[in-house]
Amino acid sequence: MSSTPNPSPQHTSTIGAIGAPSRRNTELGLLVFAVVIPVFAYANVGLAIDGSVPSGLLAYGLGLGLLAGVGHLVVRKFAAYADPLLLPIATLLNGLGLVVIWRLDQSERLQLLAKRAYGAFSPSAPNQLLYSAIGLGLFVAVLVFLKDHRILQRYTYISMVAALILLLLPLVPGLGADVFGAKIWIRVAGFSIQPGEFAKIVIAIFFSGYLMVKRDALALASRRFMGLYLPRGRDLGPIITIWAVSLLVLIFENDLGTSLLFFGLFVIMLYVSTERTSWIVIGLLMSAAGAVGVASFASHVQARVDAWLDPFGCYQTSGACEQIGQSIMSFGSGGVIGTGLGQGHSDLIGFAANSDFIFATFGEELGLAGVMAMLLLYGLIVERGIRTALAARDPFGKLFAVGLSGAFALQVFVVAGGVMGLIPLTGMTMPFLAYGGSSVIANWALIGILIRISDTARRPAPAPATNPDAEMTQVVRP
């Protein structure tokens, strides 16, 4: 008889322990393109406007490259298995936004308009670069200090209170600021902050934690009506409450964008957690009823609805109509391939050209092809977020990733739809492209959280612990 020792257990591995590649080198390669493309766009704008390469080209390229490099090194160290596309796409969008904001800073029309209104002109691009650096700093902080996204589940109801405080801050006398009819800003130490941009992340934490616990009750149906499973009466309470809060935001703050985002995010997460189509139908009906009701007596909302229905009918009498009319003409004059960077006239829109209506500049100067490319980049961020949700191993992470992706998608839709005339203008800013510190900082934090969830989802499972007793096991063969 002979015996051969059994192979040592430390040489065996699960499939998870063998592991997927980290894809960090793929991310690095994509980041190179994400930096080079905006640098070439910056040079293109300078050549189109002045006939020469901008003097700040090297500084801009080094600055954007430094931000991208810091982000990559942090991801490589603290989230080695994260999705490789999220950081490069965010960097590319942020870089192109900086280029177009700088291009609008060169407009003599906007400079003259600012001097007439404020007595002096202050360029927006340097501020936006500073906001981008702060946003990347928050991105780094998320990855360094948020070791596991499941920790946020402990703060489900605290996040609800925090979100409500953020939404109500603009209504505090002496703190809130009324900007063009919308009360969505607060002024602190000379800076304007839009709390709603951060509220979308905080409220997603609450929705994820709440729906993870209540999804079974909300999925129950009492009866079937016209092909839909109608929820029980007592289960309608959450959606009615959120609907009422979104209407209050719309009424008191005159903010259609945050109201749509707030309510739409809850309906999306409710549908994903319960798989009941009836919630989508009920949500759409309640949203339409609330919008019609508020538009009937809120003058600010009514003006935007009128501008949406017939922008050229009140072109000479309403600023809202003039802006949306200029935006539609910008998209129309861009055609398929655009007029070229730096060669459009979207600066005629006025103060909102670099914020609410910056997408119109892309539409005119890059044309339909450029607009589709930008929307595809946004679509990729949403797709990678949904893929992360599918790969997440815990229900809270799944719902949280869906919520963040849904909030991002809704914001892109309401902004792009508003400036194109598809829906009434909401006053929100295009993520990463538009001028605004709150928006770019909050969206960098959103990308950081998605990267953290994707790292947790894709990280290989650890190899099983070695059993010392197995070392003594022998297989006896006759």
UniProtKB/TrEMBL annotation:
Principal localisation: membrane
Pfam families from the UniProt entry: FTSW_RODA_SPOVE
Transmembrane helix keyword on record: yes
TM ranges: 28-49, 55-73, 85-104, 129-146, 155-172, 184-213, 233-250, 256-272, 279-298, 357-378, 399-426, 432-451
Compartments reported by the entry: Membrane
Name assigned to this protein: FtsW/RodA/SpoVE family cell cycle protein
InterPro entries xref list: FtsW/RodA (IPR001182)
Membrane topology: Multi-pass membrane protein
The keyword Signal is assigned to this record: no
Sorted UniProt keywords: Cell shape, Membrane, Transmembrane, Transmembrane helix
